[in-house]
Amino acid sequence: MNPVVISVCVMLLLALMRVNVVVALTFSAVIGGLVAGMSLNETVAAFESGLGGGATIALSYAMLGTFAVAISKSGITDLLAQSVIRRIHGQESHAASTGLKYLVLISLLLMAMASQNVIPVHIAFIPILIPPLLSVFAKLKLDRRLVACVLTFGLITPLHGASRRVLAGIFLNKNFAKKTA
Known about the structure:
The protein is an all-alpha fold. The chain has 2 domains: about 5-50, no CATH class; about 70-165, no CATH class. It is built from 10 helices and no strands. Helix 2 crosses helix 3 (about 40-50), helix 4 crosses helix 7 (about 125-140) and helix 5 (about 75-90) runs parallel beside helix 7. The longest helix is centred in the middle third of the chain and has 23 residues, at about 95-115. The radius of gyration is 22 Å and the shape is flat. Keywords: Membrane, Transmembrane, Transmembrane helix. This is Putative integral membrane protein.
């Protein structure tokens, strides 16, 4: 049977099973390439070369969003928030509450910094992590504007500012090295 027909049938079947469209498209493209006799590396290269302009980046962000939804539906972040709330109930003193506030803020700052460079998930961690922590912020009487400022600082500076040259170099080499050579 024709690999294209098989690939389209797989994609339709996955769509009927309510699988994310991006995942269904990617998986069916890989199946089509393998049925056509291509190796996995050739299939991925053909798939990527078939994507136009910024479609590769758009596909990466769509996959990242899918991953973020999967993490949030797993309940991991809710467990984290519940453990912090249990810790708050055990410590009613002002010093312990202040220490926990700073611990939460420093943790958010480090996660924001890491999201740009160490684990390149960009801002996808915010809708995963912040909603379960809203009750923690309320218990700690932590101002949400302060949390927003900490997240913004972590996303913009200092690691992102220091690595701007590196990121620009990667972008320029990837997009323009082929055209000038």
